[in-house]
Amino acid sequence: MNAIVTGASSGIGRATAVALAGAGHALALGYRGDPAGARRTAELAGGGIPFALDLADPAGAAAAVERAADLLAGVDVLVNCAGVNRRSPALAETLADWQRILTVDLTGPFACAQAAARRMVAAGRGGRIVNVTSVHEFTPIPGGAAYCAAKGGLGELTKVLALELAPHGITVNAVSPGETATPMNGVPEGADAAGLHRPAIPAGRPGRAAEVAAAIAHLAAPEAAYTTGITLTVDGGLSLTSAVANQETTRRSSR
């Protein structure tokens, strides 16, 4: 089994590569600006082919996926993990920055999924596509107009692709992480999430990249052949708390 993982130079992408290697996959490891990080991931995974990929250029990203598939002699699994996270008030957002987020977090992953799916269909042996979204696929956050729109769009794209590709034996699912202790979120590589107190999260801490990767690896496994078109949320219960602040405010005001 051959797997392509984008955003593999750190964080969830790195942990996913390690998990898939443990399941016996040969790996191609996509990175944008950190080739040393991708090489380190290959070391941790016991192998893997780093390759450059920039989602800001969707056509170029699709071509990079094609080249990676050639290097692996085929692709059975694609994990769309690469992306950017940015906040800006909607009234202050520029069209250029809006477009950049949608290109990197939605159009680029679509182009990669399309390229991988075409190879899977041509090979005729099925496959797995897993898109990494966010709890903000469902839950809005102030300053997240572009980011939430992109992640929500990627969640809906997941469902459409699942419908269209099911006849070819290809499942398409998403994993939506909550806050995860990764460099993208300002947590140094190797720091344990258990040491980060998050009282607003029912689990009391952010997630570990390996915990998100375990969900991705499950959806990429042969045993997940009957699961398609879903988003699996891995957030320590964060998305359960939307009414908690209002409940606490109501209690205080009634005293």
Automatic annotation (TrEMBL):
Its EC number is 1.1.1.-. One of its GO terms (molecular function) is oxidoreductase activity. Keywords: Oxidoreductase. SUPFAM superfamilies: NAD(P)-binding Rossmann-fold domains. InterPro entries: NAD(P)-bd_dom_sf (IPR036291), Sc_DH/Rdtase_CS (IPR020904), SDR_fam (IPR002347). Signal peptide: none annotated. It is an enzyme of class 1 (oxidoreductase). The keyword Oxidoreductase applies. The keyword Oxidoreductase applies. It comes from the Bacteria. Belongs to the short-chain dehydrogenases/reductases (SDR) family. This is SDR family oxidoreductase. It comes from Kitasatospora cinereorecta.
